[in-house]
Design brief:
By secondary structure, this protein is α/β, with parallel strands linked by helices. It folds into 2 domains: about 1-210, DHBP synthase (Alpha-Beta Complex), CATH 3.90.870; about 235-315, Threonylcarbamoyl-AMP synthase, C-terminal domain (Rossmann fold, 3-Layer(aba) Sandwich). The chain has helices at about 10-20, 40-50, 65-70, 75-85, 120-130, 150-160, 195-205, 270-285, 305-315, and strands spanning about 1-5, 25, 30-35, 60, 90-95, 115, 135, 165, 180, 190, 210, 235, 245-250, 260-265, 295. The strands form 2 sheets. An 11-stranded mixed beta sheet has the order 1-8-2-3-7-4-6-5-9-10-11, with helices on both faces. Strands 12-15-13-14 form a 4-stranded parallel beta sheet. Helix 1 crosses helix 5, helix 2 packs across helix 8 (about 270-285) and helix 8 runs parallel beside helix 9. It is globular, with a radius of gyration of 20 Å.
């Protein structure tokens, strides 16, 4: 772990680490973020692994501004008005994923929505510009710990789990960004934060408030809630040691039962980080016409396996139509 002052050289070094799929902690105006390339499934998996995050909750993707955001989400007039007032700044917008968006499915927890914002901190802006890609970044602390507002908080919480920390001093806002869902008929507050409800309503009029406002950075459509994750249209069978001819197999490890209609292996070597990176993409590949059911081999209940199994149990709890039972 290196804790360094933000210079042109150290920002360039941090940007190269991100392009190489490594992690970097950096300051924003809200809290310090643990950043990885939002388009790289393995880098996103490394974020969850470093945080010890118990679920694959959606992560916020950080961009320079609205022009860049439009490459990754389906923009609308409401987003335009909010970005003009609050970006760069502590407001995250949840918008539909654009067709062909390169944002990692793991970063969005398999959902067809993306949580996105433009941070105002000059170091964050410089890092995004130098990396030339969106940066997925939850708070830079172990899951369940207090959010870090100084570089030394990051070092204390994550230690060697993050190769480089850019020390930008204390964060000015000190609480996470406000998260506003723009995917429904009425904008809905999913998480209160640095942009106040009153200020938002002054721009776009009345907004709805989610039934269960969160206090941490667990998530549903965004950091802030929990429940609605990718539910396949095919039924899911867990703990499979054999497989039927009408089943698609989500395998794990070197020994794979034969006979499935279609097989994808989360990690032939049994690497849980690789399995996490492949989870949502491979589930979608198996969720296709002609396959009667998705069979899933056992995944160890250790490390990232806890999060993988959490998502698989949620998928198996659906009614096989993409809805929850």
């Amino acid at each position: 772990m290196k804790l360094v002052a933000p210079t042109a050289q150290s920002v360039a070094e941090a940007a190269q680490l991100l392009r190489d799929g490594r992690l970097v902690a950096f300051p924003t105006e809200t809290v310090y973020g643990l950043g990885g390339d939002a388009t790289n499934e393995r880098a996103v998996a490394a974020i969850f692994e470093a945080k010890g995050r118990p679920e694959f909750n959606p992560l916020i993707s950080h961009v320079l501004g609205s022009n860049e955001a439009k490459r990754f989400v389906r923009w609308n007039d409401t987003a335009d008005r909010l970005a003009a007032r609050f970006w760069p700044g502590p407001l995250t917008l949840v918008l539909p994923r654009s067709e062909g968006s390169p944002i990692s499915l793991l970063a969005t927890s398999g959902l067809d929505t993306v949580a996105i914002r433009a941070p105002s901190h000059p170091i964050a802006q410089a890092l995004i510009r130098a990396a030339d890609r969106p940066i997925a970044a939850p708070s830079a602390n172990r899951s369940g710990a207090i959010s870090p507002t100084r570089a030394e908080h990051v070092a204390e919480s994550l230690g060697e789990r993050v190769p480089l920390i850019l020390d930008g001093g204390p964060c000015l806002v000190g609480v996470e960004s406000t998260v506003l869902d723009l995917t429904g008929p009425t904008p809905t507050l999913l998480r209160p934060g640095g942009a106040t409800r009153e200020a938002i309503e002054a721009v776009i009029g009345p907004i709805a408030v989610s039934d269960a406002l969160p206090s941490g950075d667990s998530a549903r459509k965004s950091p802030g809630q929990l429940e609605s994750h990718y539910a396949p249209a095919r039924p899911v069978r867990l703990g499979a040691s054999t497989v039927g001819a009408d089943e698609g197999l989500l395998a794990f490890g070197p020994t794979v039962p034969q006979g499935a209609m279609l097989t994808y292996n989360l990690s032939p070597s049994g690497d849980l980080a690789e399995a996490a990176a492949n989870l949502f993409a491979q589930m979608r590949l198996l969720d296709r016409p002609g396959i009667g059911r998705i069979a899933v081999m056992p995944i160890p209940e250790t490390g990232l396996g806890l999060a993988i199994n959490d998502r698989l149990r949620r998928a198996a709890a659906g009614d096989g139509t993409g809805r929850r039972g």
